[in-house]
Amino acid sequence: MQIGEVIREHRRRLGLTQEQVADRLGVTAPAVNKWERGVSHS
Prior knowledge:
Layout: H1 3-13, H2 18-25, H3 29-37
Helix pairs in contact: 1-3, 2-3
């Protein structure tokens, strides 16, 4: 399982949107989307 899949699975299990995760982490929603898709290396 890739890290993006883990992030997505936990986010969905908690019932959070990408925007909510981004707000809690202090990043943008597109950043969370990239992490989940495995596009970003950081």
